[in-house]
Protein backbone atom coordinates (compact mmCIF):
# COMPACT_ATOMS: atom_id res chain seq x y z
CA UNK A 1 0.00 0.00 0.00
CA UNK A 2 2.82 2.42 0.86
CA UNK A 3 4.51 1.71 -2.49
CA UNK A 4 1.24 2.52 -4.27
CA UNK A 5 0.91 5.80 -2.35
CA UNK A 6 4.44 6.82 -3.31
CA UNK A 7 3.68 6.02 -6.96
CA UNK A 8 0.45 8.07 -6.82
CA UNK A 9 2.12 11.03 -5.13
CA UNK A 10 4.96 11.35 -7.65
CA UNK A 11 8.20 13.31 -7.43
CA UNK A 12 9.22 16.66 -6.05
CA UNK A 13 6.79 19.60 -6.15
CA UNK A 14 6.63 22.92 -4.35
CA UNK A 15 3.27 24.45 -5.28
CA UNK A 16 2.69 27.83 -3.56
CA UNK A 17 -1.06 27.04 -3.37
CA UNK A 18 -0.42 23.79 -1.48
CA UNK A 19 -0.28 24.29 2.30
CA UNK A 20 1.97 21.21 2.46
CA UNK A 21 4.84 23.15 0.91
CA UNK A 22 7.80 21.32 -0.61
CA UNK A 23 6.79 17.69 -1.10
CA UNK A 24 8.35 14.57 -2.60
CA UNK A 25 6.58 11.21 -2.92
CA UNK A 26 3.86 12.72 -0.73
CA UNK A 27 6.22 13.45 2.18
CA UNK A 28 5.99 17.15 3.05
CA UNK A 29 8.68 19.40 4.44
CA UNK A 30 6.51 19.72 7.57
CA UNK A 31 6.60 15.95 8.10
CA UNK A 32 10.36 15.86 7.61
CA UNK A 33 10.79 18.71 10.11
CA UNK A 34 8.51 17.02 12.64
CA UNK A 35 10.53 13.79 12.31
CA UNK A 36 13.90 15.60 12.25
CA UNK A 37 14.92 14.20 8.85
CA UNK A 38 17.92 16.37 7.90
CA UNK A 39 19.29 14.50 4.89
CA UNK A 40 22.08 16.93 4.03
CA UNK A 41 23.21 17.20 7.66
CA UNK A 42 23.32 21.00 7.74
CA UNK A 43 21.29 21.28 10.95
CA UNK A 44 18.01 22.39 9.37
CA UNK A 45 15.34 20.71 7.29
CA UNK A 46 14.79 22.63 4.05
CA UNK A 47 13.45 22.02 0.56
CA UNK A 48 16.91 20.63 -0.30
CA UNK A 49 16.33 17.80 2.19
CA UNK A 50 12.94 17.11 0.60
CA UNK A 51 14.62 16.87 -2.81
CA UNK A 52 17.08 14.27 -1.42
CA UNK A 53 14.36 11.97 -0.06
CA UNK A 54 14.41 8.51 -1.66
CA UNK A 55 11.40 6.37 -2.55
CA UNK A 56 12.48 3.80 0.03
CA UNK A 57 12.65 6.47 2.75
CA UNK A 58 9.20 7.74 1.80
CA UNK A 59 7.74 4.22 1.95
CA UNK A 60 9.26 3.68 5.41
CA UNK A 61 7.96 7.05 6.68
CA UNK A 62 4.46 6.21 5.48
CA UNK A 63 4.48 2.69 6.88
CA UNK A 64 5.75 3.71 10.30
CA UNK A 65 4.17 7.14 10.82
CA UNK A 66 1.01 7.02 8.70
CA UNK A 67 -0.12 3.40 9.03
CA UNK A 68 1.29 1.72 12.15
CA UNK A 69 1.67 4.67 14.55
CA UNK A 70 -1.85 6.08 14.00
CA UNK A 71 -3.20 2.49 14.35
CA UNK A 72 -4.80 2.24 10.91
CA UNK A 73 -3.52 -1.34 10.85
CA UNK A 74 -6.03 -2.14 13.63
CA UNK A 75 -9.05 -1.10 11.54
CA UNK A 76 -10.96 -3.69 9.47
CA UNK A 77 -8.83 -4.72 6.49
CA UNK A 78 -11.26 -3.34 3.89
CA UNK A 79 -10.56 0.16 5.25
CA UNK A 80 -6.76 -0.10 5.33
CA UNK A 81 -5.90 1.17 1.83
CA UNK A 82 -8.37 4.07 1.69
CA UNK A 83 -7.85 5.38 5.25
CA UNK A 84 -4.06 4.99 4.89
CA UNK A 85 -4.04 6.87 1.59
CA UNK A 86 -6.22 9.61 3.05
CA UNK A 87 -4.07 9.85 6.19
CA UNK A 88 -1.07 10.57 3.98
CA UNK A 89 -3.11 13.26 2.25
CA UNK A 90 -4.97 14.80 5.21
CA UNK A 91 -3.51 13.53 8.49
CA UNK A 92 -5.91 13.18 11.40
CA UNK A 93 -8.76 14.47 9.21
CA UNK A 94 -8.72 11.02 7.57
CA UNK A 95 -9.68 9.52 10.93
CA UNK A 96 -12.27 12.23 11.63
CA UNK A 97 -13.94 11.40 8.31
CA UNK A 98 -14.15 7.76 9.42
CA UNK A 99 -15.40 8.68 12.88
CA UNK A 100 -18.13 10.95 11.46
CA UNK A 101 -19.17 8.12 9.14
CA UNK A 102 -19.33 5.72 12.10
CA UNK A 103 -21.52 8.19 14.01
CA UNK A 104 -23.82 8.40 10.96
CA UNK A 105 -23.97 4.59 11.04
CA UNK A 106 -25.22 4.70 14.64
CA UNK A 107 -21.96 4.09 16.45
CA UNK A 108 -21.04 6.01 19.58
CA UNK A 109 -17.54 7.26 18.90
CA UNK A 110 -15.68 10.50 19.58
CA UNK A 111 -14.72 12.51 16.50
CA UNK A 112 -11.23 13.36 17.70
CA UNK A 113 -8.97 12.21 14.86
CA UNK A 114 -7.29 9.51 16.95
CA UNK A 115 -7.77 5.77 16.52
CA UNK A 116 -8.21 4.12 19.89
CA UNK A 117 -10.09 1.07 21.16
CA UNK A 118 -13.47 2.84 20.76
CA UNK A 119 -12.89 3.65 17.07
CA UNK A 120 -11.42 0.22 16.32
CA UNK A 121 -14.42 -1.55 17.91
CA UNK A 122 -16.96 0.76 16.23
CA UNK A 123 -15.31 0.26 12.83
CA UNK A 124 -15.34 -3.51 13.32
CA UNK A 125 -19.06 -3.49 14.17
CA UNK A 126 -19.92 -1.21 11.24
CA UNK A 127 -17.83 -3.30 8.84
CA UNK A 128 -19.56 -6.48 10.03
CA UNK A 129 -22.95 -4.90 9.32
CA UNK A 130 -21.97 -3.51 5.91
CA UNK A 131 -18.87 -5.42 4.75
CA UNK A 132 -19.40 -4.64 1.09
CA UNK A 133 -20.22 -0.99 1.63
CA UNK A 134 -18.14 0.60 4.37
CA UNK A 135 -15.12 1.26 2.13
CA UNK A 136 -17.41 2.82 -0.50
CA UNK A 137 -19.12 4.93 2.16
CA UNK A 138 -15.74 6.10 3.43
CA UNK A 139 -14.56 6.91 -0.10
CA UNK A 140 -17.69 8.94 -0.79
CA UNK A 141 -17.23 10.82 2.50
CA UNK A 142 -13.63 11.42 1.50
CA UNK A 143 -14.68 12.78 -1.89
CA UNK A 144 -17.17 15.09 -0.15
CA UNK A 145 -14.38 16.31 2.15
CA UNK A 146 -12.32 17.34 -0.87
CA UNK A 147 -15.30 19.11 -2.43
CA UNK A 148 -15.89 21.01 0.83
CA UNK A 149 -12.29 22.22 0.88
CA UNK A 150 -12.55 23.38 -2.73
CA UNK A 151 -15.90 25.07 -2.04
CA UNK A 152 -14.35 27.07 0.80
CA UNK A 153 -10.90 27.72 -0.70
CA UNK A 154 -10.87 28.74 -4.38
CA UNK A 155 -7.07 28.25 -4.61
CA UNK A 156 -7.61 24.53 -3.90
CA UNK A 157 -10.12 24.01 -6.70
CA UNK A 158 -7.33 23.12 -9.11
CA UNK A 159 -6.83 19.92 -7.10
CA UNK A 160 -10.50 18.94 -7.46
CA UNK A 161 -11.06 20.06 -11.05
CA UNK A 162 -8.56 19.71 -13.87
CA UNK A 163 -7.56 22.56 -16.19
CA UNK A 164 -9.71 20.92 -18.86
CA UNK A 165 -12.71 21.07 -16.50
CA UNK A 166 -12.93 17.37 -15.62
CA UNK A 167 -12.24 15.58 -12.37
CA UNK A 168 -9.03 16.71 -10.73
CA UNK A 169 -6.51 14.67 -8.79
CA UNK A 170 -8.33 14.80 -5.46
CA UNK A 171 -11.57 13.46 -6.89
CA UNK A 172 -9.86 10.82 -9.02
CA UNK A 173 -7.84 9.74 -6.00
CA UNK A 174 -10.92 9.34 -3.80
CA UNK A 175 -12.73 7.42 -6.54
CA UNK A 176 -9.85 4.95 -6.86
CA UNK A 177 -11.13 3.50 -3.60
CA UNK A 178 -14.86 3.57 -4.49
CA UNK A 179 -16.75 0.96 -6.53
CA UNK A 180 -17.24 2.28 -10.07
CA UNK A 181 -21.02 2.37 -9.62
CA UNK A 182 -20.52 5.23 -7.14
CA UNK A 183 -18.19 7.30 -9.33
CA UNK A 184 -19.61 10.62 -10.42
CA UNK A 185 -20.47 10.79 -14.10
CA UNK A 186 -19.09 13.75 -16.04
CA UNK A 187 -22.53 15.37 -15.90
CA UNK A 188 -22.81 14.84 -12.13
CA UNK A 189 -19.33 16.22 -11.62
CA UNK A 190 -20.04 19.31 -13.74
CA UNK A 191 -23.26 19.91 -11.81
CA UNK A 192 -21.35 19.63 -8.50
CA UNK A 193 -18.69 22.18 -9.48
CA UNK A 194 -20.92 24.55 -11.48
CA UNK A 195 -20.97 27.14 -8.69
CA UNK A 196 -17.18 27.49 -8.94
CA UNK A 197 -17.53 29.31 -12.26
Automatic annotation (TrEMBL):
Residues 93-175 form the Peptidoglycan binding domain. This is Peptidoglycan-binding protein. Coiled coil: none annotated. It comes from Thetidibacter halocola. It comes from the Bacteria. InterPro entries: EF_Hand_1_Ca_BS (IPR018247), Lysozyme-like_dom_sf (IPR023346), Peptidoglycan-bd_3 (IPR018537), TtsA-like_GH18_dom (IPR008565). Residues 3-91 form the TtsA-like Glycoside hydrolase family domain.
Amino acid sequence: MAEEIVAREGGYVNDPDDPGGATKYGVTIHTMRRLGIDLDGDGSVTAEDVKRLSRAQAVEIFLQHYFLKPRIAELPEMLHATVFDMYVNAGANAVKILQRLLVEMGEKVAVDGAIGPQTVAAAARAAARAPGHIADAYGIARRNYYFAIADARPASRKYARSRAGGKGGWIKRAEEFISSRYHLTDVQFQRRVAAWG
